[in-house]
Amino acid sequence: MTAPATPSTNFRDGLLAEIPSLRAFAISLCGKLDRADDLVQETLMKAWAANASFTEGTNLRAWLFTILRNVYFSQLRRTRREVEDADGKHAATLSVVGEQHARLDLGDFKEALAKLPPDQREVLTLIGASGFSYEEAAEICGVPVGTIKSRLNRARARLTALLAIEHVSEIGPDATTLAATGPAIAGRLARA
């Protein structure tokens, strides 16, 4: 990789000479002094980085104004996708299920998984976590498919007992968490 070209003294002096004009143009585009200064700074940084693409003797001012204009419109497009929420009303309508219970559940699961015999843990990991089919798991373990199905069934039953799960509804957020986070989260979880 080659090092970027060092700008010439003429290029540097030209940039410095255009700063007042760039600032005036930036103010006319956005109407705010602080934002205009940011635009000029971004323009100068981009121009400095791309100095090798500028041809000496051509119109530096036009090149800089084009960069500034492109930066401005790129930022404008980006901000159109953002939601202004100065008073926090929009953020207050959003809710997220806390991770505390999920972390505790994961810890319990890891503990229970470690208590399984190695052959059951292996099959559960191959099929449940890695997504292998029964046939693929049988080939990996070097045993018949029926043995894989039997080990998996015993592993699932043992995990269910170790985790004291009586019904699939006990997996995931509890009723209290769902009530606290509101109907929007409950609806999303129901659809998942």
From TrEMBL:
InterPro entries to which the protein is assigned, alphabetical: RNA_pol_sigma-70-like, RNA_pol_sigma-70_dom, RNA_pol_sigma70_ECF_CS, RNA_pol_sigma70_r2, RNA_pol_sigma70_r4_t2, RNA_pol_sigma_r2, RNA_pol_sigma_r3/r4-like, WH-like_DNA-bd_sf
GO molecular function per UniProt: DNA binding; sigma factor activity
Domain RNA polymerase sigma-70 region intervals: 20-81
Alphabetized PROSITE patterns for the sequence: SIGMA70_ECF
Keywords recorded for this protein, A-Z: DNA-binding, Sigma factor, Transcription, Transcription regulation
RNA polymerase sigma factor 70 region 4 type domain residues: 109-159
Source organism superkingdom: Bacteria
GO biological process, one term: DNA-templated transcription initiation
CDD domains named among the record's database cross-references: Sigma70_r4 (cd06171)
Keyword Transcription: yes
Similarity comment text for this entry: Belongs to the sigma-70 factor family. ECF subfamily.
Protein name: RNA polymerase sigma factor
UniProt organism field: Methylobrevis albus
